[in-house]
Structures are given as C-alpha cells and as structure tokens.
Amino acid sequence: MWALSLVPARYSAMSMGYVDLGGGPGELAPHTHGAGYGEAPLVEVTDLTEGSSRAPDVSVTLTAARGAIRLGDGDAIDGYTLNGGTPGPEIRARVGDLVEVTLVNTDIDAGITLHWHGIDVPNAADGVAGITQDALAPGESQVYRFVAKDAGTYWYHSHQVAHEQVRRGLLGAIVIEPAAAEAGAPVDVVALAHLYGAAHTINGAEGDLHVDIPAGASARVRIINTDNGALFAWLGSGSFRVLAVDGHDLNGPSDVSDAEVRVPAGGRVDLLIARPADGSSVRLHLGGPRGVVIGPADPEPVRAPTGQVDLLSYGEPAPAPFDATAPDRRFDYVIGRRWGFLDGRPGAWWTINGHLYPDVPMFTVEEGDVVMMRLANHSGQAHPMHLHGHHALVLSRDGVPSTGSPWWVDSLEVLDGEEYEIAFVADNPGIWMDHCHNLPHAQEGLVAHLAYANVTTPFLLGGDAKNEPE
Amino acid sequence: MRTTYKVLAYTICVLVGVQAASHAWASAGLGSWVEGGGVLDSTAFESDESLFPEMAGFGIHAMNGMMIIPFVSLILLVIALISRTRKAMQWAGLVLLLVGVQIFLGFASFGVAALAILHGLNALALFTCALTAGRIGMRVDAPAVAAAAPAVEGS
C-alpha cells in the first residue's frame, strides 16, 4: 500500500487515476485518456490558444521576484513581488479587449506561473504548471493572451507551488468592465483581501480602506478573497445588495440589512453600498480587523450579525441558458477523508469518491456536453471547490432547488455534510483542474481534472521543470 | 517482553501528557497573541502561517495524537498478543480502542464542538488505562503463562 502511493518523479496528468465518463460515451481504458479516442485528431493544450494575432488592447508586463514584504508593525516576511510590490498591479480591461500579459521570472528558484482565477481563458493561457505549461525558471518569461468576455471581478495568482507562492504574494486583482462605461454607475472599489504573515490586509495595506464618495452616492465594492479560509462581510449600518458572485451578476438582488455574506476562498462578491444621504459614513467589515469605510468619518465597528445571505434563494429567478434536466454526463465529486499514504506519507488524507490522490477520477467530457456534477462533502471540514475554465450553475443544495437568482460559481464552498448539484456546458476544450482552493488541501491531494476527449498535454508533473501546481 | 510492555504503556502515559501540555501551551499562546492585537478568523485559521510561536503546540498535538500514540498503542497490542497474556491483551486492546475513540472525537469535534468535552475526558480514561496496563498488564497472568509457555516468559 505504501509503495503504491508513491508518485513518480515525472508523470503526465493524462495517466493520472482512472477515467470517469459520467455515463457518456468514450473509452475507459486506463492511462490512455486523451490519447487516441475516436476518430478525431489529438489536440495539445498548447494549441488551445486565443487564436487571434491582433494587437492587444491591454498589455501588461509582470516581473516576479523574491523580496521582503514589510508589514505594518515594522516586521518583514520573505515573500514574492510583482513589479516590486504585492499584490501585483490591478489589471483593468473592457469586454472585448484582448489582454496580453507577459510574466517574467527574475529569481524565484521554484519557478512560477500565473493563473487567471475565474476567467474562462483558452486552456493554453490557464497557467497551471505541469498541465498547461512548464513552470518558468529564473530568467524565463511567458505571454498569456485572452479576450475579456465576461464583465466581472477576478484575480490572478501563481499556480506553481501555489500553497506557498500565493500566500507569499504572487497575486493581484483583474477587473473586466462592461464594453462601454455606464452612465451613473457606482464608484468602483476593489477590496482584495490577503493575509501576509498574521497581517490582514486590503489591497496590501493593513487596517481600513477609506473611500470618500458624496452623500447619497453608491459604491460597488469588489471583494476578492485570496486566502485559504472563508471571508465574511457585513455592514455596520444600512443595507447592501449583492450585485455579483464570481464575476457573474445576480438577477434582481434585494436589500440586505441584517446578514453577512460568505466569500469562499478564491471567491469574489460584489456589493452595492450607498453612502447615506444624511452625510454619515458606513463601515463594511471584512472579517475581524479591517473593512471598507465609505465616507469621511470612522464609524465604530459592530459585531457580525447572526444571519447569512443564502444565495440559493437570494434574488429573482431567471431562465437558465441550457437545459440541465437531461445532462449528457453526471459526475460525483464526493469528498471524504481516511487514513492512508500520500506519496509515502502516512496520515488522514482527503479522498475523492473514496480514492486517494493520484488515483483520482479524470472527469472526461466532449465539447458541447451538458454536465451535472454532484459535490458532496463528508470529510469533516469545509472545502471551497474551484473549477478552472468554466462557470457552473448551482441547481440545488441538499436536495433543495435553487429558487433565487441564477447563481453561477467558479469557487463554491461546500461545508461539511453539504451536497450541491451544479451544472455547466463543456464549452472550453482543455485539461482543467477541479480542486479545493484551501490550497494546503490541494497540496494534500484534493485535486482532480476535467478533461476533454482528444485533448492531451505535453507537460509533465514533476519532471525537469519541477512542475508542482499545488 | 514484560519490560517492553511496561515501557510502552508508560510511554503512552507520557505522550498523553504531551497532548494535554501541547494544547494548553498553544491555547495560552493564542490568548496572549489575541491580547496583543492578533486576530484569528477563518482566513487566519486556515492559513499555513505560524501566527505565534506557541502555535507549534497544535501541530505537536495533531502529529502526536494521529501518528505517534496510535503507533505506540499498536505496538503495545502486538507485544501483548505475542506474550499471550490475557490481562496484557485486554488492557492493550482497551488502550487502542480508546485511542481510536479519541481520534474520532477529535475530528468530530470540528463539526460538533461539544464532543471536545468528551475528547478531554477520554484522554483521562486513556491515561488511566495505559497506566494500569503498565502496572498490572502482565503481572497478574504471568505465572500461568510461564507454565504454559516458558519460552515466552524467558524472552
């Protein structure tokens, strides 16, 4: 059992675990998924690019380097910077823009990548070491190109040794705005929450973020949770609306006055907050020690309300863009925990459908499939599950159907004992990670992949590039 | 073999003591850290950061409780089975059972915090059983076993 758990020094994700066809057509032969299926020719992930050679509308170079991160109390921790700081520069684009980001590794020995968390980029630009690229060694660079399609709040981070590099600063915000500026739109505020050492920060600074807007005006606060645990947001007074979740607007959001909002690890929530017409200020709490203060005053912090916004019933329903009642594939993603060996190390490790990493399912689909996935958690702890390259519609939780706004997610927290049904259209060919975004959990084996038939990857986990995406 | 059994049983007592001490040390460190302005929320709780030095106590508690104590308890039972001493087997079996219960309660208390009370009380039961195993585990049946299997007695 111990010997079987050992992970080879170099291996392809295509040979990982076992094929799960979810009741659809395909070949079950182990270790050949993605290779030689059907009549269609094989496609490598490197071919799945944006395609267009047109000049970029947004062009950014991000230079990564080792550096000390100075905290408010004067202490410094060893970390990583992008263009000399962390978080990296906020990137802004409009719908339809072609975004081109050049990533340069100055001196980070473990290698780096950048993943565009929540943006459904072409697979070649997904930035996962060992799956869609090799980690960039010091002195190397890589260009990521994608078209900004969906307006919303996103972030980017390294997906090489992610549990360490994200924590240490290789991350930043990216916002996709509507194609044209909207008259009367609320003031746009990004609040990227990150823990550096023990310091809770917003946009890299400890303490409150102050936003002074005129009385009666409103702000759209884009909360980005880049940490491993859930972040809770609540308002000191007045009410807010949840405008968007994971980069997708909610339909018919209503006022919330006495409840907090859960932002899962990796997730984003946009809130609409009005500064009262009487000129007073309001405090949006983000966890315990920090917040966004709207207005010039400094309102006293208040305790979190006991209620929580339930996105399963929040907002107004709207028709789904696809029929989820008769999916082409049905997958189970059941998370458990048991004793065993993970790469030779004994311990109580996470399981997927009863299997320990790397003997995990390769969820296999064909382009155009409607896919339903049952996410169940019996592991004793919460797991914020993140699917790359797609957004899924939440259908139900614990058998209770969604009755609110269509709730699209790329980062969905599944609490212990909960069971969600989600559905999505397989419309973005590639090899996509589907993993827990409590990144130490991913490092502990809570990782599977969604693979399109006839797509394969030339990159190896481990190997000369020392690819270690988790 | 009797000495080995005794040493292992008392080792478990010491390790249970380490469990109590490490958790108390970490809890005190947490309190001190919060008093000094530290904030523990979900993001900090789930981070891989060493927020305060005494946090190592939680790691010691987890490693000792999930790996070392079960391993020593298993060896204790194996020694008892080899010795074929009824009392030794009974006490070693009970120790291992309580270790299993203890781990279950430890994990279950993440979901139902009240079970942590039983986790604490079960630790006392485990300590007592291990102490009793060390004191009388082999002694009571020793003459009978010696008559039936002198080779074991002499090992």
Structural description of this entry:
The complex is a heterodimer of chains A (470) and B (155). Helices cover 3% and strands 42% of the residues of chain A. Chain A has helices spanning 2-5, 162-165, 439-443, and strands at 10-11, 18-20, 43-44, 58-70, 76-82, 91-94, 98-105, 115-117, 141-147, 152-157, 171-177, 187-196, 199-202, 205-206, 209-211, 218-225, 231-235, 240-245, 248-249, 261-263, 268-274, 282-286, 291-294, 329-342, 345-352, 361-365, 370-377, 383-387, 392-397, 400-401, 408-409, 411-414, 419-425, 431-436, 447-452, 455-456, 461-462. Chain B has helices at residues 2-35, 42-45, 56-83, 86-108, 115-136, 142-148, 150-153. In chain B, helix 1 runs antiparallel to helix 3, helix 1 runs antiparallel to helix 5 and helix 3 (56-83) runs antiparallel to helix 4. In chain B, 28% of the residues are buried. Chains A and B meet through strand 25 of A and helix 2 of B.
Q: What number of structural domains do the residues of chain A give? A: 3
Strand-pairing-aware structural class of chain B: mainly alpha
Tally of helical segments of chain B: 7
Q: Number of DSSP strands of chain A?
A: 37
Shape of chain B: elongated
Largest interface: A-B, 29 and 21 residues
The CATH architecture of the largest domain in chain A would be: Sandwich
Q: Percentage of helical residues of chain A? A: under 10%
What string, H for helix and E for strand, traces the elements of chain B in order? Answer: HHHHHHH
First-to-last CA distance of chain A = 23 Å
Q: Give the rounded overall mean pLDDT of chain B.
A: 89
Number of E strands of chain B: 0
Shape of chain A: globular
**Would you identify the regions of chain A where 5 or more consecutive residues have pLDDT less than 50?**
none
CATH class type of the largest domain in chain A: Mainly Beta
Main sheet of chain A: which strands, in order across? 14-13-12-16-21-18-19
Question: What is the makeup of the main sheet of chain B?
Answer: none
Largest sheet of chain A: 7 strands, mixed
pLDDT under 50 segments of chain B (min length 5)? 144-155
Number of domains of chain B: 1
**Beta-strand content of chain A:** 35-45%
